[in-house]
Amino acid sequence: MNNQIASYPIIILLSIIVLLTSCSNDDDRGVLSNQKQITAFVFTSTNNPDLKMDITAIIDQDNKTISASVPFNTDITVLKPAISISADASVDPQTDKVQDFSNAVLYTVTAQDNSQQEYKAEVIVEEVKLTDRDVLVEFFEANPSNTLGWDVNDPTMDSWGGVTHDKGKVTALYLSSSKITSIPSSFGKLKNLKRLVILRNELTSLPTEIGNLEKLTTLSLVSTKLTDIPKDLSDLTNLEELSLLNNRLTSIPKEIGNLGNLEILRIGNDGLTSFPDEIGKLVNLKTLSLKGENITIIPATINNLTKLTDLYLILSNLTSFPVELQNLTNLTHLGLNCKLISFPAGIDTLVNLSFLSITGINLSSFPTEIGMLSNLTTLSMSNNNLSSYPAEIDALSNLTTLNIKYNDLTTVPTEIGSFTNLQMLSLSGNELVSVPVEIGNLTNLTSLDMEENKLAAIPKEIGNLIQLENLYLENNNLSAIPQEVCDLKTNHNTNIFIDNEVSCM
Question: What is the pTM for the complete model shown?
Fold first, then answer.
């Protein structure tokens, strides 16, 4: 009896332990899982006929993204992923269900406790790995009427005209008069291309991928049917030379101002009505040529281009000249053909000028400022209304080329004989009735053009010009020329161009 009483505490203790253990197990069964991860995302070759091997996606658990790359030509509209998720969770869309991955697909994982987590799954199709030769073959085939004359069976490209390459890496393309109408987007894969010239072709547009040609330093698009230039051109930050001439462009994108390494810019299209102010950002420009019949205003920002050495403005309807030439002291070549402006101020400050051409601006007399340009070697003042020129021009002793054709000159002063360095002299298209004997002092002349004047006689001293290669005398009032002049042809192989009725005397 006493033993039974003594065992009661032990029995009670065991009962409490069993009860507590039972309650703990009941509590465990009442806690629901909150785990809701996608742990694997695989496109198996078994479930996806386009795939030759399993593709395992990368899962970023921090950002809840899934990404996979599949081979080129894989149809990503019918892919079936095998998805692994946390225990006791579910996923929607379900595993092994066909999905269109043209756009990102959202997957929602629901945990046992009904909490949810969303994942964004994206599939990228790998680009085809084309060789430079593959790219040019695709270009060739995209222009079935081309006259390139390439033998596409030549594995080396060595026989392909206009193609320069270094061990299969294309570095330059010169495509002239080849009936090119289009450039495929794959052109952007020519990563080693440095020079691209497309001349006299039927090209109407450029692919935006042209902006991928990051090594390109020269781009010349001349005499094509291009109507616009993609803004992506501004990505060609290594470009040093850009020519856009005789196309069908109606505008130039302002993004051209991003081409900070550009040193040469030539733009000339009659469809243009303006040039962007952003040209003024191209502070490394050394050569700028602008051409257009419908341009009336040019950007004053050109004054920022203080590194310019060559400036050519062929703008027949330009109404104002905002360029302050005194800012462009590095100019060595200046060409102006702008008939509606007056002679620009500041030319006399351009002491480095060696070439000056001012044509078609209706000048009636030679500006005396020109006499200050002692370094001039070429002076052209054609297609004006000049009737005389000042004595100051005689200071230009370094002249080798003097062009005064198509003006109203009636005489040539005796001072012409002081230009002893002259090699080319053009006086055609004037009203000349005589030429001074001093012209015979120009013993370095190789070309003398006096066509289309009113000359009835020429001095025999022209016969002293034994370096003459060409002498032009047609369309004058000449009936005969001195024998000394005729002897130039016999003794020095000079080409003498005269009317049929003109004889030697």
Answer: 0.76
